[in-house]
Design brief:
Helix content: 40-55%
Shape: elongated
Distance between the termini: 78 Å
Bound molecules: glutamic acid
Strand content: 5-15%
Largest sheet: 3 strands, parallel
Number of helices: 20
Strand order of the largest sheet: 1-2-3
């Protein structure tokens, strides 16, 4: 069977970095197996779901290069849920309940007070048809619970957590449908996973107890459950799921100049035993992806690490990848000269301005100006050639006896207006002969 994974966000907000990590892992898991990665929009909650969030989710996935091989929307699948639900009603695996939130709360408190686990007592199972009829007569609509089979221990071999075992007697029968007919997340999700041929459900460990109940839903619906894997959650550097982390979305990363390659390289490896490396090639992340390397400890997300990784990735990006992001006229040679100095691609424009000028002449002492006058004469008299910087500095070293910083720094200052920057050997050919000469002469002129 083709490995099929899905990413199933609810469009009630924008994706945060933790959601994106889950999406990436599902994509990697599918691609590693030559399988399919599906997007499922979990929009059963019409009041809270928004179309602009759906658009934003698609845009974020596209930005990160996680193109789905198919998309489904739960709001378009209510007929299917009705049909499957009717089967569960017929087989007695869902049942009608009427307790209010306050009544349930009271029951829970009583149990906890007696030192017992707060499991729903299944009181509604004892209702007769006459009782139901009376409720209907009184205008009370039921909500529905899924009847767990308490004789069947729930077991699965989790792709991250290993052997899992739950006693269904320790779990409340989950509510699957509200009194107004609307769906809670668990049952539609299981129905869809079956209908969409999902073979692997990889999600956060906050879903482990849902999985326990859903294991039985798959069986009740007549299907083999998919393989399940629950990854440890993402936490901030302070070690907890911070507000900041929960709010951190793709828009913020994009604005900060974080490249999708950097975010993917970090999120692919965070929380695994594999090192975080500046891997710009997506296929390399696919090839090395393995659930076996996932740890049980929370994965720590560190913004500083992301920015370091981003710089390392930018230094590798080929011209073709970045060309449309660069200022007009900036070509491949300029990109390659400038890229080692960048933390973000956006900074390329600043260095390109150093090439195109005008640059502010530095304020220099008499000695430095005299040296630059010599440099201007030397440059004027020399063949430009393929390696003008080497030719110029070689000649100046001979003529002046200068070396190291004394030889190079005044030239850099005169030619770029700065004390540091890209390799001058690469920069000088970009500046060009006439402009270089003019800059040297200007810097050499008396103050
Ligand atoms: N819509 C669910 C959520 O956002 C999906 C969980 C799942 O992957 O099954 O939590």
């Amino acid at each position: 069977m083709t490995v099929t994974t899905r990413f199933a966000p609810s469009p009630t907000g924008t994706l945060h970095v933790g959601n994106i990590r889950t999406a990436l892992h599902n994509w990697l898991l599918a691609k590693k197996a030559g399988g399919r990665f599906l997007l499922r929009i979990d929009d059963t909650d019409a009041a809270r779901s928004r179309e602009d969030y759906v658009e934003a989710i698609r845009a974020d996935l596209a930005w990160l290069g996680l193109a789905p091989d198919g998309e489904e929307r739960q709001s378009a699948r209510f007929d299917l849920y009705e049909r499957e639900f009717a089967r569960l009603v017929a087989s007695g695996r869902v049942y009608r309940c009427y307790e209010s939130a306050q009544e349930l709360d009271l029951k829970r408190k009583v149990l906890l007070g007696r030192g017992l686990p707060p499991i729903y007592d299944r009181a509604a199972l004892a209702l007769s048809e006459a009782d139901h009829a009376a409720k209907a007569e009184a205008g009370e609509a039921p909500h529905w619970r899924f009847l767990l089979d308490r004789d069947q221990p729930i077991e699965w071999n989790d792709g991250v957590r290993g052997a899992q075992r739950f006693d269904p007697a320790q779990i409340s029968d989950p509510v699957v449908r509200r009194a107004d007919g609307s769906w809670l997340y668990m049952l539609p999700s299981a129905i869809d996973d079956i209908a969409m041929g999902v073979t692997d459900v990889l999600r956060g460990e906050d879903h482990v107890s849902n999985t326990a109940a859903q294991m039985q839903m798959f069986s009740a619906l007549g299907a083999e459950p998919p393989r399940f894997a629950h990854e440890a959650l993402l936490v901030g550097t302070e070690g907890k799921l911070s507000k900041r982390l929960g709010a951190m979305g793709m828009a913020e990363f994009r604005e900060a100049g974080v490249e999708p390659e950097a975010l993917a390289a970090l999120l692919a490896r965070l929380g695994t035993s594999q090192p975080v490396e500046p891997i710009a090639e997506r296929q390399a992340l696919v090839d090395s992806f393995s659930l076996d390397s996932f740890g049980r400890a929370p994965a720590r997300f560190d913004e500083a690490e992301l920015h370091r990784l981003n710089a390392q990735i930018v230094h590798q990006l080929p011209f073709a990848r970045v060309a449309r992001l660069l200022p007009g006229g900036m070509g491949e040679a300029a990109w390659e000269a400038i890229r080692p100095n960048l933390a973000h691609i956006g900074e390329a424009a600043d260095w390109w301005r150093v090439v195109t000028g005008p640059v502010a002449p530095p304020s220099l002492d008499d000695e430095a100006r005299a040296y630059l006058a010599t440099a201007a004469e030397t440059l004027a008299g020399q063949e430009w050639g393929d390696v003008p910087w080497q030719t110029l500095t070689g000649a100046l070293k001979q003529a002046t006896g200068r070396k190291g910083k004394a030889l190079f720094l005044p030239l850099r200052q005169a030619l770029t207006g700065m004390d540091h920057g890209p390799d001058m050997a690469a920069l000088l050919p970009l500046i060009g002969r006439d402009e270089a000469l003019a800059r040297l002469q200007r810097a050499a002129a008396p103050a």
